[in-house]
Amino acid sequence: MTEMPDLSAGRDEELGSLLRAHLSAPDDAAFVARMRAMAVTTAEETAWRSVARWTLPGLAAAALLLAVLGAALGSADTTAVARTSGSAAGSLVELAGDSSAGGSVALLAVMTY
Amino acid sequence: MRTYPVTDAELAAQAQAGSSEAFGALVERHAERARRVARAALLDQHDADDAVQDALFSAWRALGRFDTARPFGPWFLRIVVNAAADLRRRRKLRQTEEVPEHVADSGPSPERDTDRALLRERLDRALATLPERRRMALVLHDAEGYVHEEIAAMLEVPVGTVRSDVFHARRAMRKALGQSGEGEQ
What we know:
The complex is a heterodimer. By secondary structure, chain A is mainly alpha-helical.
């Protein structure tokens, strides 16, 4: 073993390489490959767990929001239809009496609506 | 081993953004060194492998807090050192100063008559007689090439303590190995 300046910042290369060789194992390459695969799987599983964790509450919240919006819009539509139906009926009577082509197109559009 | 055109910092940033492949590449780069360090801590290959595996999970969980401006290697090895300590506590391993059973065993071995086998045995015994912190400081410094400041951060001790540990560990190893260390490789 070579003498080295103790307490210095320098490395003892000879002892270091001896220790490195001693602490290495013949199956290091296989171990590294196994750890790599495990790392990838761990990261992927975590990502999917995260997605799954937020998916159910997210879907439930979205469904609730849609239901509330649907109810609100439905209520607004009913009110609007009820409010406009009277005037629309009057307009239809007027349009029906109009024999021009423009009047027919307008009537068709209103009926379609 | 594959070579990657990107740095550890770039891989760490990609992994933080959710890239499992980037995390895999980081682990691939550092697993071999981590295995050696864990073995130096635990003096047992099977336990060392378990510790590296535990460290891998811990590193993934903590990756979001990793500062990519800092080197990844020392950060990961610090996790490995902590994982090894946790594993030892969980399994109530024997004191590291105690010579492991397989080292103390003087029974016949197929390699016993070879110089290499004798050297390995001496190294095992010498490492096992070192207090763990000294052993870790020596391996991290001389075998793995980290500077005292990095080792101090990994082992959570003052830099002066690391310097002293390396000094005492080298002296003990020289004494234990004598001139028999020459020739392996």
